[in-house]
């Protein structure tokens, strides 16, 4: 038999059993569909993580205190960061600059519109160290902190919520933060997703001392953001910061978290990749089960077509021809199923956007799904095909 005749026989066989073919391919369709979506979700997650950390310089170092220790009446040295710690860190040779921040929730009101969001108490260099830019207005100054001026910088989303599309109209206006009036002196440029649970787009930034006294309170636990002089000095900067903190926190130094942005990004991406690998494994199991279904159906097909196999052999079909015919049928079922699953996944992706799931389907993911599907069909289809090819013509012709 020629290759063309073998392919024609496969097509005829499939076309005469459409329902069984569909049910057989259904597992492959689901498996391929799952693989593409899982890889797309993984890529989307990695992209989100990268975007969230994108506003941080790779040389940025975050210093955060640990949890409070000791129960009522216990005497434990404080691991709360303060101005002395900031000054010691700023003096480190490998540190270019450093700033201290406090965050807390507050109710923001403008006329009859209210919104609960995060307020950051920041110093003059906060925007520079966090790669934040102003679209309109001016930055907070050191004088604002010293004299406790009630001024505020608001995020792009908050500005649009209160003042409409013309965000520049927010400048000079007064907003209420926990019942106290603040003059808007700046509007941040739109950023998008951000890290650390603080979204500048919908938040308010006020002078550090103002936030500490009027908004968040002195019981808050500040964090420090430092910037190494260059990438080669990040490790040295971390060591120097640790030594600087030891001066005032010798007994609680182990409670502090000192991490650079590059390491945090790498850790977050590794977690995302691990989750993607786990989900791909689940999808592979789906394909495995589907492959077993293909093998089962192929055995039934061989049983039903035993007499046909005998006739083909009697008129000169070789063992290789029978093997290829059944193997091609299994591979075609699985490959077409993988292709359909891929098409369905690309159709579904836009609808998943309504559930705020970020998916970045890739060509590699689609090719991997179709390849896995073809391999599944080949692996599980070979044994039934080999059994069909091994049938003796006389015994096959005797079958009813």
Fold and architecture overview:
The relative contact order is 0.19. The protein is elongated and about 105 Å long. It has two domains: 3-51 and 267-398, no CATH class; 66-255, no CATH class. The protein has helices at 3-15, 18-54, 83-90, 126-129, 142-146, 156-163, 208-215, 234-248, 261-304, 306-314, 319-352, 363-389, 393-398; strands at 60-64, 95-110, 113-122, 134-137, 151-154, 174-177, 180-188, 204-207, 223-228, 257-260. A six-stranded mixed beta barrel has the order 2-3-8-5-7-6, surrounded by four helices. The two termini are 25 Å apart. 55% of the residues lie in helices and 16% in strands. The chain is α+β, with helices and mostly antiparallel strands. Residues 70-77 have low confidence and may be disordered.
